[in-house]
Amino acid sequence: MNINISHSPGNAAAHVHLQPGESFTAEGGAMIAMSSGIQVETTTHKRGSGGVLKAIKRALTGESFFLNHFTAGQGEAEVILGTQLVGDMITYDLAPSMNLIVQSGSYVASHPSVDLDLSWQGFGKALFSGEAMFWIRCSGQGPLVLSAFGSVYPVEVNGEYIVDTGHIVAFEETLNFSITKAGKSWMSSFLGGEGLVCKFNGQGTVWCQSHNADNFGTMLGPLLRPRKN
User: Fold this and answer.
1) Hey, is 98 helix, strand or coil?
2) What pLDDT, on a 0 to 100 scale, did the predictor assign at position 13?
3) pLDDT higher than 60, residue 81
4) Which of 15, 77, 113, 171 is most deeply packed, by most CB within 10 A?
């Protein structure tokens, strides 16, 4: 399996090249185009099996209930994947010793050996950060494809680092985080428009996106015309 990202950072697409018989798993609706010899199987979890509980957990993070599994036939094949929002895509090679926590909406595709499960960030953290209570926990081994709203870039953390909650794409599980105020006081934090942020502690990588989907939706909402019945 070989994955190439094209047209970064504004209109990224992931080109997944498969050898005969190779497979990979993708979020429902991510496929832009594919070779004619590819077989597609739709399940709630692993290829060839169900896993309704896993699908329910995944739906709680904001991802689709179903996953599509693409398998090349007798020849080499290609699948092109896109993003929900205008932005960039990255690949990450998951190792058995390194789990990855992915924000809601950022998962695109992965190797079949990668397991997707629920990550509970805690009711208090979710309530005060304004983000979802559940994230996706990726474990196993193989490549992952992630998407971002805008450009995406890594931040190497060694000690402490602060990131706005709406700009987190993913982070390595070696990092712990807590919710705190952005400024010196609660008043300055909210008046300055930053509010609450995530303070990461430890050693590992955080991937950030340049745009905040929630802020964009809030800004765009009043400009949309009401739907006519």
Assistant:
1) strand
2) 97
3) yes
4) 171
- CA of 209: how far to CAs of 52, 76, 93, 223, in Å? 31, 33, 19, 24
Give the span between the Cα atoms of 153 and 200, in whole angstroms: 16
d(CA 38, CA 7): 24
Three-class SS state of 127 = helix
- Could you give the CA distance from residue 76 to residue 99 in angstroms, rounded to a whole number? 30
Instruction: Tell me the C-alpha distance between 101 and 208, whole Å.
Output: 13
How high does pLDDT run on average in the chain? 81
Q: What is the DSSP letter of 185?
A: S
What pTM was estimated for this model as a whole?
0.80
Closest by CA position to 9, among listed 198, 169, 200? 169
Task: Please provide the size of the chain in residues.
Answer: 229
28-32, long-range: CB < 8 A, 24+ apart: 28/64, 28/65, 28/66, 28/67, 28/68, 29/64, 29/84, 30/68, 30/81, 30/82, 30/108, 30/109, 31/68, 31/70, 31/79, 31/80, 31/81, 31/82, 32/80, 32/81, 32/82
Provide the percentage of residues in the chain whose pLDDT is more than 90. 53
- The C-alpha angle with vertex 57 and arms to 53 and 60, in degrees rounded to 5, equals 140
| 112 in Cβ contact with 144 (< 8 Å) | no
Residue carrying the six token digits 């340049």? 210
Q: Is residue 41 a contact partner of residue 104, using CB atoms and an 8 Å limit?
A: no
Dist. CA 154–CA 201, nearest whole Å: 16
**pLDDT interval class at 229 (50, 70, 90):** low
- Domains of the chain, each with CATH number or no CATH: 2-223 (3.60.160.10)
